[in-house]
């Protein structure tokens, strides 16, 4: 008997513990439902609609008429145009009058009067010295010399353009030009200026 009583006691305790747990679960569920937690969502019922097809009245459409294939210009004769009634307008364009455009009067630039070097009749050119040795050798010839005539008429420089073929005769001619020659200087509008001038000197034995 003692053994049977000992086996029933544990079962009674477990039952009480289960009952208490069930009560707690029920209370907790009630609280959650009162707060809206865990409540099942209500699904609205489906809306049922009915559709009715409206009958359209039938309209009798007459068939299209047969096309008229005849040309509207068939057998039509147009009258000839009355040329007496045709007129042409013509605009007469008068040319513009001639405009005489005159610019400023053309003034010729002032002419510059240039006068070259000339021999001075009051100072004839002296003959160069005929070197004695050239006389003994019978040397003759013509020299073309350019002289640079200063505004005062004196010769500032001289250079040989064409030689006599004898250096001593050429040197004698240039020395005489620088030493003694005087000419009338070139002028521009009456004002003396320096200018080169070419002269020819001939050495001949019968003219010494």
> What would you call the quaternary organization?
single chain
How much of the residues is beta strand, in percent? Answer: 15-25%
What does the average pLDDT come to? 75
| Second rung of CATH, namely the architecture of one domain | 2-Layer Sandwich
> What is the name of the CATH superfamily of one domain?
TonB
- Based on Cα principal axes, name the global outline: elongated
| Most strands sheet | 3 strands, antiparallel
State the strand order across the main sheet.
1-6-7
Instruction: Give the H and E element order.
Output: HEEHEEHEEEE
CATH class of one domain: Alpha Beta
> Which stretches are poorly predicted, pLDDT < 50 over at least 5 residues?
1-9, 82-93
The count of DSSP E runs of length 2 or more, i.e. the number of strands, is: 8
Helix content: 25-40%
Number of helices: 3
User: Per CATH, what is the topology of one domain?
Assistant: TolA/TonB C-terminal domain
**Gyration radius, in Å:** 74 Å
End-to-end CA span: 199 Å
Structural class: alpha+beta
Describe, in short, the structure shown.
The chain has 208 residues and is of the alpha+beta class. Helices cover 25% and strands 18% of the residues. A hairpin with a 2-residue loop joins β6 and β7.
